[in-house]
């Protein structure tokens, strides 16, 4: 009969056959999350916008999960993996997830935005400059949405009026939102934080361009007004009959 050392003591115990077998120092913890619990955690972290914690949670899931097949088909888990891949810049992994799995319509908006934004980012890196509207149109034509995240309906790439109105309201309060506000706006509008940031950036650029144009027009008006005043003054001063006339007398002379 063999003696067994208590678990956790780190001691060794002799066996009947003579060899000494080391007892485990401690029992390894096992994760016993169900697929539903994993999905709930993924959804909660996704809604909070805490991508780093979401990534750590996915990484901590055991490879040999008892329901690994079901876990790999969970939409919440797949969507979470896609989000982490997008924010990590692992676009090939993102594309593979989106192309190989069919998602419900509720997930389409967010996944479509990530698909397009990832391709935009790759195109910008390749060209070494920001993309204009025509460039983005060409990217969309070259990389159409996969049917796994698209129901076949034509999609407009302009924000809805409600979304634009909400963005404008926030812009008037703060043209430079911090990451937390961007995540809050993204949750309220259904956009990604990147899309929100790009909208604010483009709006600031348009406002600066409009302000510069207004300054130019104003300076031109002032210059033109000054030029007219000088011209009239010179004409009044150089008149044949008078060396100087008041504006009223000059007007009467010129119109008689």
UniProtKB/TrEMBL annotation:
Pfam families: Homeodomain, SIX1_SD. It is found in: Nucleus. GO terms for cellular component: nucleus; transcription regulator complex. CDD domains: homeodomain. The keyword Ribosomal protein does not apply. Residues 152-211 bind DNA. Its main location: nucleus. One of its GO terms (molecular function) is DNA-binding transcription factor activity, RNA polymerase II-specific. The chain crosses the membrane at residues 216-237. Residues 150-210 form the Homeobox domain. Keywords: Developmental protein, DNA-binding, Homeobox, Membrane, Nucleus, Transmembrane, Transmembrane helix. The keyword Chaperone does not apply. Gene3D superfamilies: Homeodomain-like. Belongs to the SIX/Sine oculis homeobox family. This is Homeobox protein SIX3. It comes from Eufriesea mexicana. The lineage of its organism: Eukaryota, Metazoa, Ecdysozoa, Arthropoda, Hexapoda.
